[in-house]
Amino acid sequence: MANILVTGANGQLGTELRNRSFSLLDDVFYTDVEELDITSAKAVSSFIETHEIDTIINCAAYTAVDQAEDDEERAAKINRDAVANLANAALQHDCILLHISTDYVFDGTADQPYTEKSATNPQTVYGRTKLEGEEAIKKSGCMYIIIRTAWLYSAYGHNFVKTIARLANERDEINVVNDQWGTPTYAGDLAEAIIKIMENEDLPEWEGIYHFTNEGVCTWYDFAKEIVALAGADCKVNPVTTAEYPVKAKRPAYSVLDKKKIKDTFELEIRDWRDALKTCMATF
Questions:
Q1: Rounded distance, CA 254 to CA 249, Å?
Q2: Which of 127, 216, 219, 282 has its CA 20 to 30 A from that of 274?
Q3: Which among 149, 161, 32, 47 is positioned nearest to 95, based on CA atoms?
Q4: What predicted TM-score, i.e. pTM, was given to this entire model?
Q5: Is 126 tagged catalytic?
Q6: What is the extent of the structural domain holding 63?
Q7: Which residues pair with 149 in a beta bridge?
Q8: Mind listing the pLDDT tens digit for each residue in 68-111?
Q9: 171 assigned to some structural domain
Q10: Catalytic residue among 126, 144, 210, 221
């Protein structure tokens, strides 16, 4: 039996966790900023003590990548300082902390999948503050599992899949970047992986950083083509270069994550991104 705190519970991953079942013996407290302000160390410690929390799953994050370039203080408050609050409270109250991080901690210049041991070198405010959050966890001394993921989407909130599906039904053609490589991640699959990991009785032995995305590699253009096809829309998808689609925050040219460690450690079977996309879009 466990008392589990889920932060950022109204986001994509948090919502997918709500839609799935932890053990019937567990009490799960789903919170977002209205229920718990994780930027307040006092509020975090009080909540954990009051509800006798022994497991924390942190899905909260400042994820507006371009906006973060002009709002570093707020991004750091959520991605670094709030994470430090959770980690310090986890140590104080003897909790396990599972935290979600990102491929943006890397610089995107690799030509082979990034492993958990690959050198980090974030190129954006978002990536830098997320890495600082990881470092705050390790510095705290709490028992932790950090899962880096990439290209997250679901049937909820704002994401690439929902945007492309909408545009495909509104326009005759759309332009999508074809020189950035990565792997989409269905938040539902990540949620199921988290639940399985949390059920592991030997979890304290497996402390560390892990990578999780769906299997396979594609560009945003490939991803968009598949979305349009599944949506049954009569819309042409045009490949363009990153230079033709300027944005404020630099995007990684290559952000494929190696998942061998998480698959071997927790005996996870991860499906191809195309199969996961079909499952997600069937719920639209």
A1: 15
A2: 127
A3: 47
A4: 0.97
A5: yes
A6: 3-158+185-216+256-270
A7: 102
A8: 999 999 999 999 999 999 999 999 999 999 999 999 999 999 99
A9: no
A10: 126
